[in-house]
Amino acid sequence: MKQIILIVVACLHVSVAGAQAKNRTQISGVITDMQTGQPLAGAYITISDTKAGTISDSTGAYLLKNVPVGHTIIEVSFYGYRTIVEHIDITGDVVRNFALSSAIIINEGITITGVAGATSIRRAPISISRVDKGTLLATSSTNIIDALSRQPGVSQLTTGPAISKPVIRGLGYNRLVVINDGIRQEGQQWGDEHGIEIDENSVSRVEVLRGPASIIYGSDAIAGVINIITTTPLPDGTLRGNILSSYQTNHRQRSLFANLGGNSQGFNWNIWGDYKAAADYKNRYDGRVFNSKFNEKNFGGYAGYNGAWGFTHFIVSRFNQRVGVIEGERDAVSGRFIKLLPGGQEAEATDDDFKSITPGVPYQHVQHLKII
Fold first, then answer.
1. Which of 161, 212, 362, 368 could form a disulfide with 319 if both were Cys (CB 3.0 to 4.6 A apart)?
2. 122 near 55, Cβ under 8 Å?
3. Does residue 105 register a pLDDT over 80?
């Protein structure tokens, strides 16, 4: 089964007026601890509308260039501190200092879902939840929708550890829209036996909009929207890599993810690859369930440029998944699961079959190539 999506989108964001494109300014200041007054080095300062950002230096100072004139939303975040979101009207160069207070939970953020431009969650007229990368990593799950099912109003329809479909307030399928990097994810929204074909390890942020959003995304978004964002540029002048590995005991699911990205004078890029595999899972009634195994090999990346005129990004992702289909047939005498053999023969599943990560017959092979 193949899904090949070729989307040619002019991801070129230009200011509304030609004069504004030339009339760019800058924001600078210092990030400090509210209680001690000490500078905070490494704090993130971002503007979502222009996908621009930077980090504070050893003295807590920061500088954001090429900020458009007009209304701008700036977000300041630092691990272990409450995130600050401010609405600023820019008419010229601005000096703005921020003092962050310590906190265990970051309780504010920027969202771009369900509205025409970026806004803070508290000012959004609709119910929106933002799930960051740290929250996704801290949640024990087998796929991205399984992790999101912990959010209020969100549940899942699952037919195995690799296949989960989102449900918002009881509605799913073609009553719910999934967005991935600004493009509707429409590969497998109809069938019960299909997931959303997005690798959860590559996700940097998810925004869940609960309730009708048909004005923005069409009449099929009556249940809501799940906006999955993977391409978040790094601050200018940085090069960063990550390696993530996990293991789950029930079905021996193991994964290895790695990515490398950078940003130099507006030229930004990121590449990533992921491998995931699992054997048959176990439950209290059947023991090991034959052919519930799966494996995935995924890779992707993007390259782009953020300039004074706006930004443009070229995004590629390749999703490749093999998932076993559970039939549940058993031998009438021994009660053990039956596996199919070449030539139409049958045999009892052995312990080695339960440990294998290669799906038996029947299985589905899902390939999804996306170019934006």
1. 368
2. no
3. no
Secondary structure (3-state) at 362: coil
CA distances, 172 to each of 112, 147, 193, 213, 325 (Å): 22, 16, 14, 14, 22
- What token pair was written down for 65? 């260039």
Question: What amino acid occupies position 33?
Answer: D
- Report yes or no: 87 and 71 within 8 Å, Cβ to Cβ: yes
CA distance 196 to 229: 14
The answer to whether 226 touches 177, Cβ cutoff 8 Å, is yes
- The answer, yes or no, to whether residue 177 has pLDDT greater than 70, is yes
pLDDT band at 98 (very low <50, low <70, confident <90, very high): very high
**What are the pLDDT digits (tens) for 147-167?**
888 888 888 888 777 788 888
pTM: predicted TM-score of the whole model, two decimal places = 0.67
DSSP string, 149-204: TTSTTEEEEEEETTEEEEEETTEEGGGEEEEETTEE--SSSS-TT------GGG--
CA–CA distances in Å: residue 335 to residues 6, 87, 143, 218, 319: 48, 65, 31, 50, 37
Residue type, 61: A
Q: What confidence score (pLDDT) does residue 163 get?
A: 81
Verify cis geometry, omega within 30 degrees of 0, for the bond prior to 233.
Answer: no
% helix, strand, coil for the chain, step of 5? 10, 50, 40
| CA gap 13, 311 in Å, rounded | 6
Per DSSP, what are the bridge partners of residue 278? 294
pLDDT per residue over 323-347, tens digit each? Answer: 998 888 888 888 889 888 878 788 8
How many CB atoms are located within 10 Å of the residue 43 CB? Answer: 23
